[in-house]
Amino acid sequence: MRRLVTFASIAAAAACGRSAHAPPPAPSNTPAATAIEPEPVATPSPPPDEPRAPAEPPPPPSPPYLAGTWASACMPGATKGTSTQLTATITDATWVLAVDAFRDPACRTHAAQLRTEGAYALEAPSSVVAGAWDARIDFAQRTLTVDDAATAKAMAKICKLGARPRPKQAVDVLARGCPGLQVHPVATCAADHDVVALVGGALQLGVRPPDNDLCTAARRPTALAPTLALALVLPSQGAPLCDAYYRRTVDFAACPALPLDTKRAMADARAAMMAAAAGMTPAQRAQMEPACQSATDALTSALAGIGC
Fold first, then answer.
1. Which end of the chain has fewer CB atoms surrounding its CB within 10 Å, N or C?
2. Nearest 10 degrees: CA dihedral of 288, 293, 298, 303?
3. Predicted TM-score of the model (pTM)
4. Does residue 91 surpass a pLDDT of 90?
């Protein structure tokens, strides 16, 4: 971060003089000298202003850097007494979304998982949702896995599978979809056209319509859904100040003023730091905390300096 410090200096001068009554000059026969006016000196005209080069336009905003594993909180499920949790595992090129269903309201007793995988692209800043990006998430694979016979029976009916899936064995539902879950066949819905943003350190997605149809750009959401906020999974290492630093780096990944490569380098450095700390003793990790606090302060100052 560059800090520009401008110093201003002010100077003032004052002059004063005295006046006295001088005696009159002595009379003289010599004619008084004729005063000669000096010839005016031509003052050169200032050179014309040189043409200035046009200011370079600011670089376009960069998309958020999303690589990592992001998880939602435990959310209410489709039926009373059940719950759901979302986990997005994202690389530079692929997006894997796992929707896990639980038979209890606290996300403890797992029942089934719907897993979707494909390439994705952050296409452009959203013209509708401030701070968000238009995203296209392709569907290349989609599987359903159930944990037990009772769930298999229910899912066979909900998804119109024909035959009950076997527990713990993934069933391909890409082509058929699942009508009861509003999951569309890939032939009619090859991708989601969503909006994504990093807000307050969390990955947020768009508000989904009741029919779950984001299959075309015209169906793209016009607002973010706070209930679809996913936090970057950063396991605590028992050093609170270092844990706080790791979380603060997510704001770095969101800053539109920073190049994408810079964001990627920060994420790589965070991963390397966490890997090194994982091999340390608790006492060694505690010794890192002053450095982590300094790093957090420096990062906060740097982000403020570039408007993030």
1. N
2. 120
3. 0.78
4. yes
